[in-house]
Backbone:
């Protein structure tokens, strides 16, 4: 099969590279000339473990993946075209901005000259794929195409493995022909006994939003439990561990912290709620999750401010929204750091991969090339993201370069008693 991927952001590029790994010929389309040049040289424009190696393999060795700015030139020979453009939250609104999706649909309609399967892989509200079909059918015969919803479930930091070894593949179709094509596309996963869930288009679109909203709910829930634990003297980590042993609950996404962030959960929760509101359905739990997460930033910031002297220098470690990514979009760490700066604190920051993006987000923060350099002369340390390199810091060394021994371990990666023995004033989350 010949595949065309429209959009070389996180979802599009990972999808294209992994399909090339399956042996398919893949054309990736993007209008950003600077990004295209970087990709053609085999360099991934974002940090994702394994992507540089995968791109190098399939650009230079197998030659199964290539990059272009023109959809017109590449759609003619394409069997399947994936829409993987961004669907960000509209400014000052909670609903998804689908303008990029509509633009791609219009362009596809203008360039189809033989049967082609059009797949929405971007995270889109229910009804979007039907609208894509409507846009295309306004210009060409419906016999020349079908539409499919095929949501992605990729986690930044482990995206390649998530694609190649997924928990499931969801295919939303309204006819047998397109379902058969999609199952053939994902046939390499049959050998791994990956469940293929075939549904209606609307069901498929809901599955993605419902999944992300449920995971966000687990995070918001354990964070509120953490608040109670702090007041009554309980340990949220032990609570979460005991809860997670219960197979009905499970242990994943029960790590208390500063709240959920990134490019998916915040916007998807908002969009899910907004879609329901338009249909006169009140998703009260989802609305509460969104509110709880937004309030969490202030709670954490207030806790820090109440325990660190005004105008102090703070070492802030970890700015990406999670480890193993350089993504700072809706990062709770970034929001807390920016909030502290606005309150008059000086921030000395370090992140293994995200500092370039963090500088673009807030140029007022001061950045250092190592955790120890960032600690020099600071009155306190805040661990905002649980990168592995922060899990075994030399606190004997740090003790000598800190002005005051205060640590806010927002991710609970250290044992409080160990740091207290070294003279640190320790503040965890939910303990």
Residues:
């Amino acid at each position: 099969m010949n595949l065309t991927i429209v959009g070389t952001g996180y979802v599009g590029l990972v999808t294209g590279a992994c399909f090339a790994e399956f042996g398919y010929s893949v054309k990736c389309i993007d209008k950003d000339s600077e990004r295209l040049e970087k990709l053609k040289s085999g360099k991934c424009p974002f940090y994702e473990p394994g992507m540089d190696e995968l791109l190098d393999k399939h650009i230079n060795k197998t030659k199964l993946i290539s990059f272009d700015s023109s959809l017109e030139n590449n759609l003619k020979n394409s069997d399947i075209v994936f829409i993987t453009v961004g669907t960000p939250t509209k400014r000052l609104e909670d609903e998804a901005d689908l303008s990029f999706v509509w633009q791609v649909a219009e362009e596809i309609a203008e360039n189809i000259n033989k049967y082609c399967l059009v797949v929405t892989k971007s995270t889109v509200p229910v009804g979007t794929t039907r609208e894509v079909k409507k846009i295309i059918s306004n210009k060409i015969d419906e016999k020349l195409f079908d539409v499919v919803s095929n949501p992605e479930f990729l986690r930044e930091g482990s995206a390649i493995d998530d694609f190649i070894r997924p928990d499931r593949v969801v295919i939303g179709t309204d006819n047998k022909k397109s379902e058969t094509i999609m199952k053939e596309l994902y046939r390499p996963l049959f050998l791994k006994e990956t469940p293929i869930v075939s549904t209606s288009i609307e069901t498929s679109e809901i599955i993605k939003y419902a999944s992300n909203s449920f995971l966000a709910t687990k995070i918001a829930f354990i964070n509120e439990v953490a608040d109670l634990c702090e007041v009554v003297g309980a340990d949220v980590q032990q609570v979460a561990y005991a809860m997670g042993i219960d197979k009905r609950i499970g242990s994943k996404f029960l790590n208390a912290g500063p709240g959920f962030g990134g490019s998916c959960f915040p916007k998807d929760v908002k969009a899910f709620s907004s879609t329901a509101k338009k249909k006169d359905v009140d998703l009260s739990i989802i609305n509460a999750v969104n509110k709880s997460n937004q309030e969490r930033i202030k709670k954490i910031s207030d806790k820090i401010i109440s325990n660190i002297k005004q105008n102090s220098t703070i070492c802030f470690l970890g700015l990406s929204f999670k480890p193993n990514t350089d993504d700072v979009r809706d990062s709770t760490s970034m929001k807390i750091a920016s909030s502290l700066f606005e309150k008059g604190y000086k921030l000395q920051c370090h992140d293994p991969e995200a500092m370039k993006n963090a500088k673009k987000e807030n140029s007022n923060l001061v950045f250092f090339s190592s955790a120890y350099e960032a600690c020099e002369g600071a009155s306190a340390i805040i661990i905002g993201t649980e990168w592995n390199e922060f899990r075994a810091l030399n606190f004997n060394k740090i003790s000598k370069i800190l002005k005051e021994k205060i640590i806010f371990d927002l991710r609970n990666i250290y044992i409080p008693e160990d740091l207290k023995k070294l003279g640190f004033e320790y503040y965890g989350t939910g303990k």
